[in-house]
Amino acid sequence: METLPIQDLGRLIAKKRGNRGIRSAAAEAGVSSATLSRVENGNVPDLATFAKICRWLGVDPAIFLGIETSEEPSKKAAVVHFRKKKTFSPETAESLAELILAAQRAKEARLALQQQ
Predict the structure, then answer these.
(1) Are 88 and 44 contacting, i.e. CB atoms less than 8 angstroms apart?
(2) Where would I find the beta strands (DSSP E) of the chain?
(3) How far, in Å, CA of 113 to CA of 6, rounded?
(4) Domain HTH cro/C1-type: where (predicted)?
(5) Is the dihedral of CA 70, 55, 52, 113 positive or negative?
C-alpha cells in the first residue's frame, strides 16, 4: 500500500484547489477557509477536518496514517504520524491510533453486514 507523509496533504490541497480561491475550495470541502489555508501550509488538522479534506480530495485517509488493509492493521505506523506533532504525548498518540483502528474495524464490520 502506498503511504504518504501527512505533510503531503497540503500539496494535494494546493493541487486540487488550482487557481481557485481558498474560500471557494474550503466551502466545497466543508471546512473554513482559515482551516484549509492552515492545512495547506503544513499544519496538521484535527480528525474531523482531516476526514472532510480527505473526502474532498478523494483520497483514502489510510495512505497518510499508514494503516494497512490486511486483517491486522499496523498500529505502529499510525502512531508514528501522531508523534510528529510535539503536543502529543506518546500515550495520546497510542490512544489516537487505537481509536482510528477501532473505527476502521467497526466500519469494515458494518460494511460486511450490509453486504450479507
Answers:
(1) no
(2) none
(3) 32
(4) 26-64
(5) negative
Residues 38 and 72 both lie in one domain: no
Q: Report the alpha-carbon distance of residue 104 to residue 96 in Å, rounded.
A: 12
Give the tens place of pLDDT for each residue, 2-19: 677 877 899 999 999 999
76-109: pLDDT as tens digits: 555 555 555 566 666 776 777 777 777 777 787 7
Question: Do 4 and 55 lie in a common domain?
Answer: yes
78 and 46 in a single domain? The answer is: no
5 and 58 inside one domain: yes
CB contact at 8 A, 81 and 4: no
